Amino acid sequence: MADPITPEISDRICQHMNEDHRDAVLLYAQKFGNTPEAESATLASIDPEGMNLSAIVAGKSVPVRVTFDHTLQDSEDAHQTLIAMVKQSKK
């Protein structure tokens, strides 16, 4: 069974995404956070309802909230949802 989304799991997911999937994090801000002008973005936290990002727009940090289309059940659901969002944003 996958882990529930605790603050520790959120930190682990954010660290992984920010280190290994910066392009995906930027897509989340641009496509799902209604910030198409974002130049870069960092994933700050994730919870069952959504994720908080910090996007750079015109040289300034802007908070961005992305709400998921369903409540996440666990870390595996988060993993699959984040992958699906990248695929959807590239259509």
From TrEMBL:
InterPro entries linked to this entry: DUF2470, Haem_oxidase_HugZ-like_sf
A Pfam family annotated for this UniProt entry: DUF2470
DUF2470 domain: residues covered: 10-85
Annotated protein name in UniProt: Heme iron utilization protein
Organism: Dactylococcopsis salina (strain PCC 8305)
